[in-house]
Design brief:
Length: about 500
């Protein structure tokens, strides 16, 4: 079947004549112009005389490493997309090549379908026209979907400008991305922007909360299952990897993944093949991995709770989402953007934020970051009855009230506040992450209501005094998995 991508000029570098011929014939059948080289010297001679669209190089060559060829292409800012072929199981070489600027890597023995797919992806990622031989590679703007995704990351602080620039830069590669940051800092927004700015924007974006999947179902959820593979498997079902084929798989809270599953995930990353539960054969998957966590992965590695080799494979490209306290200048713009979105979802007019209310928000620590800010604004919208939000609408005493009007603490309360053995015991029981603790409590209550109502969201919402829209919002925000709905789908037969 002919390739959907336009014909291209490709340089193949491999010292084994049979493999070189096999790659050449495979790509010629796709309509590409192919040039071959047996070692680094021949490859350098070819690169000196002309430009190519794609460079495919074996890692081990008679006169050196293919990695040095990659570095030369990157240092000279050439436009070739580089694909490296590494030995089976050579994880370190694969990671090193991606860090050196390779677009993708393949492992021996090379699957010819994966070779064709990698070349097609490399060509699709070249949005910019090729530069002249002595000119640096020109950087193209992201596609319209990528521009919209970047606009959703609100703020003009230096940290936000920096992370947006990094997103555009890393989006055109196949290298895995690891997003680190506190809870509520917008890690999924960053992951979506990486997807939307890439050549995979037309493919699916599958988001998975690794901490929300029951451990006994996690393998089936990730890799799929065949009918009869386990009790209750009444039909074949695809897993997250199959659902994300041709697109991006976002593994949120990767630090919560059980150790046994970490080993299986590592193998899939290395082989790019999955075997569904109950299946005999593996199937190839074309997926870019983006992971995120608020946890300290190096500390988990040291504690033996996270595999070092998996951390090494996931952390090829690192991004860090800044905490809200580190970009206070963005809070006014961010609060306005959140109000616009919340009011649009609720179908109501957007109120103004009074200077006193803005000052009250700026004076809070907001350990839950953007998520906590959104929750505060949502509460204020529910309590407010006017066209302007004031501090009182947030359910708090305004900072503008003079201290003389506030009654002093009663003696009993004051005594309770003094340090003591009892207060020390109470402090030890306090959660170290309030927002995460509250989310867990809310998730538990919602699941209890859903189970009691046979997972009918309309009935569960009424049981909790919510409407269906509010119920859907909470299910999506907390990453609650509903039976028969991949990734917490927004439809259910029991709803009305």
């Amino acid at each position: 079947m002919p390739s959907p991508t336009p014909s291209a000029s490709i340089l193949v570098v491999d010292d084994e004549p049979d493999l070189r011929t096999l790659y050449e014939l495979t790509l010629l059948r796709e309509g590409h112009a192919v040039t071959t080289a047996a070692d680094l010297q021949q490859a350098r001679e070819q690169l000196a005389s002309r430009r190519f669209d794609v460079l495919i190089s074996d890692m081990q060559l008679p006169d050196g490493l293919g990695l040095s060829l990659l570095r030369e292409v990157a240092e000279r800012q050439r436009s070739e997309k580089c694909i490296v072929i590494t030995a089976h199981g050579s994880a370190e070489n694969a990671v090193e090549s991606l860090k050196a600027g390779a677009f993708d890597y393949l492992t021996k023995p090379v699957d010819l379908r994966q070779l064709r797919s990698a070349v097609s992806a490399a060509l699709l990622s070249q949005r910019a026209p090729a530069a002249a031989p002595n000119e640096p590679q020109r950087v193209a703007p992201p596609p319209p979907s990528g521009v919209r995704a970047l606009e959703r990351i609100v703020g003009r602080s230096s940290s936000i400008v920096q992370i947006k620039g990094r997103i555009e830069k890393v989006a055109t590669s196949m290298a895995p991305v690891l997003i680190l940051g506190e809870s509520g800092t917008g890690k999924e927004l960053v992951a979506r922007a990486v997807h939307e700015c890439s050549h995979r924007a037309h493919g699916p974006f599958i988001a998975v909360n690794c901490g929300a999947i029951p451990e006994n179902l996690i393998e089936a959820e990730f890799f799929g299952a065949r009918k009869g593979a386990y009790t209750g498997a009444s039909a074949d079902r695809e897993g997250y990897f199959q659902a994300a084929h041709g697109g991006t798989l976002f593994l949120d809270e990767i630090g919560d993944l059980p150790l046994a599953m970490q080993a299986k995930l590592l193998r899939v990353i290395q082989e790019r093949r999955v075997r569904a539960l109950g299946a005999v054969q593996e199937e190839a998957v074309d997926v870019r991995l983006v992971s995120a966590t608020h946890r300290d992965l190096p500390a988990l590695v040291q504690a033996g709770q996270f595999r070092q080799d998996l951390y090494y494979r996931l952390n090829v490209i690192g991004l860090r989402t800044p905490a809200l306290r580190d970009r206070p200048e963005d809070l006014p713009e961010l609060a306005h953007a959140l109000l616009v979105r919340l009011c649009h979802d609720a179908g109501q007019a957007v109120p103004d934020l009074s200077p006193a209310a803005l000052h009250w928000l700026q004076s809070r620590e907001l350990p839950g970051n953007v998520r906590e800010l959104e929750n505060l604004l949502q509460r204020a919208l529910a309590l407010s009855s006017g066209a302007v939000l004031h501090p009182a609408d947030f359910g708090e005493i305004s900072d503008t009230i003079p201290d003389t009007l506030v009654d002093p603490l009663p003696a009993a309360v004051d005594a309770f506040a003094r340090p003591s053995a009892a207060s020390d015991a109470r402090d030890a029981a306090l959660p170290d992450d309030l927002q995460r603790y509250l989310d867990e409590q809310e998730r538990r209550v919602l699941l209890q209501a859903l189970q009691a109502c046979g997972f009918n969201r309309t009935a569960a919402a009424a049981r909790l005094g919510l409407n269906l829209r509010q119920m859907r919002y909470r299910i999506q925000r907390l990453g609650i998995m509903l039976p028969g709905a991949a990734g917490g789908a927004d439809t259910e037969a029991g709803d009305v």
